[in-house]
Amino acid sequence: MADGDERVGAFWRELGLPGLIDVHTHFMPERVMAKVWAYFDSAGPLVGRAWPITYRFEEDERLAVLRGFGVRAFTSMIYPHKPGMAQWLNGWAADFASRTPDCLRTATFFPEDGAAQYVRAELADGARVFKAHVQVGGYDPADALLDPVWGALAEAGVPVVIHCGSGPAPGKHTGPEPIGRLLARHPQLRLIIAHMGMPEYADFLDLAQRYPGVYLDTTMSFTDFAERIAPFPRAERGRLMDLGERVLFGSDFPNIPYGYAHGLEVLAGLELGEDWLRGVCYGNAARLFGV
Q1: How many helices (H) and strands (E) does the chain have?
Q2: How many CA atoms lie within 13 A of 191 on its CB side?
Q3: pTM of the entire structure?
Q4: Tens of pLDDT along 120-149?
Q5: Which architecture does CATH list for 6-289?
Q6: Is the dihedral of CA 231, 288, 59, 94 positive or negative?
Q7: Distance from C-alpha of 280 to C-alpha of 278, rounded to nearest angstrom
Q8: What is the DSSP letter of 232?
Q9: What is the DSSP letter of 246?
Q10: Cα–Cα distance measured from residue 220 to residue 39, given in angstroms and rounded to the nearest whole number
Q11: What letter does residue 253 receive in the DSSP assignment?
Q12: For 58-66, what is the mean pLDDT?
């Protein structure tokens, strides 16, 4: 276990919350998770520095730890890096959600023939959130193959957690410009910008102010680990308050190089008030997902 784990329960109880909702947690097929951890261990080019996995446990223990923290609902963020992978991941995630009732059923997609069909099938079967990883997938979110996918998701109103910022390392299609083009075509999309769009925080805050369906998750943002390479601009804290109902707590559990409590305590350190914290850590996601 990590330093500060015992403080997590006190954090939400002192706010008068029934627990936490974490919109950015990773549960994957065992062999996929092992490859992800091996990549972090090697400090690969998308990481670029030592990144110890704090909660490197078997799946059952990871679930027990998360529930022990008081997390009432969470996701199983999955993402393909090549064609033909998304449907297999979706099948695994559907099974995981069926045996894990506190998991918001998660699905994913890739720009490929048939993507619109399997996304519509996932929506019909009850997927509640999708994950897109522009950096790992290496694709343009405005790819024509994805246009009917985004259309179906916008029509259904189902949120998509999308890693599209250029942190921890830029990709060919990362940054705010591709997302701006996407939103111009599908302005009703509910996009949850992972990691607050790190390091292009201000640009993604601009998009959130322009489009009412854009949310931001706090995953790794404001932590000591992130601030060393991509500090959040102090001048933008006021906009965090203005957009308070569209900021959601995310952790990246279990793939974080520090204790879970740290990702919560840095939010309190922003000094934006307890009402803001209550919304970010529970209320906003509860409304969005009907928890």
Answers
A1: 14, 9
A2: 33
A3: 0.96
A4: 999 999 999 999 999 999 999 999 999 999
A5: Alpha-Beta Barrel (3.20)
A6: negative
A7: 6
A8: P
A9: G
A10: 18
A11: T
A12: 97
